[in-house]
Amino acid sequence: MDSEEGLPRGTCIASDVERYRMVDVAQQTIHELFNLRASDPDLVSRFNLFSSSVTQKLWSTEKYCEELLKLDIDSFTIQPSESDTKDDVSILRDTQPVNVELYSRQLNRLLDGFFMNSMSTLDTLAHQISTLYAIDKLPSKIYITDFRSMLFPVHANSELFKLLSARLEQHWFTQLLPYRNCTTHESLIMYEINYSFNQVTRKYGTETMMLPDDPRIIPSTHYEKRAVTEYCPAILAEIQSLVDEAYITILADIHRANDVLPIPAP
After folding, report:
1. Which of 102, 122, 133, 187 has most Cβ atoms within 10 angstroms of its Cβ?
2. pLDDT tens sequence across 197-241
3. pTM of the model
4. Taking the domains of the chain in order of start, what are their residue ranges?
5. Strands (E), the chain
């Protein structure tokens, strides 16, 4: 395989287009090599399942993020029925013009989907890693936070171990974990949402929706001013970047092992 396909570590990526091309090459090469070289058909089936699942869950994370950015409280305006009189319509607009509860439910549904799929992307990547590297003893349940116990005993010098050791210690990841855990137990945003009506645009709007500083602390605080529309795209970018870099470093580890799969102990 030539140096371009080998994607040597430290290669300068000139643009996003070039970066995506490199990732696509890495993913495709890993897929082809594993299906060609791995001898255990059950392991190959697991690898293929997890490979497609990482892509699916990352796509789902992107879609939830897109929907969060498009969510508009003005679209939850309560419309008068044909039987309402003019007085009824006037009272309706003055007392309950927006269905705040439905808006909140939609917001929390999207946040649940975003945080669950964002971490599931990384956890499914961990499952795929478990098929790619020869590991003495796998945990009964595999999460991305298990990477140390999985890789360290045999693959502590691998490029992937170095990458995960650095990236999963960063602030964005330690922030993300409590949000994912919270969504399995309670809602992130309460129903007490303030909104206003713009006389110029004739539309309803709401203040910027803030995530709690730490969802484990009740009552919530919002000193960090972590806006949903800023935080979620930033987290998505971090996850996309980590997945991309993981595939590039995995391919480097495969080549260093002379394309033997699963990657044996050095």
Report:
1. 122
2. 888 888 888 989 999 999 999 889 999 999 999 999 999 999 999
3. 0.86
4. 3-256
5. 195-198, 203-206, 210-211, 226-227
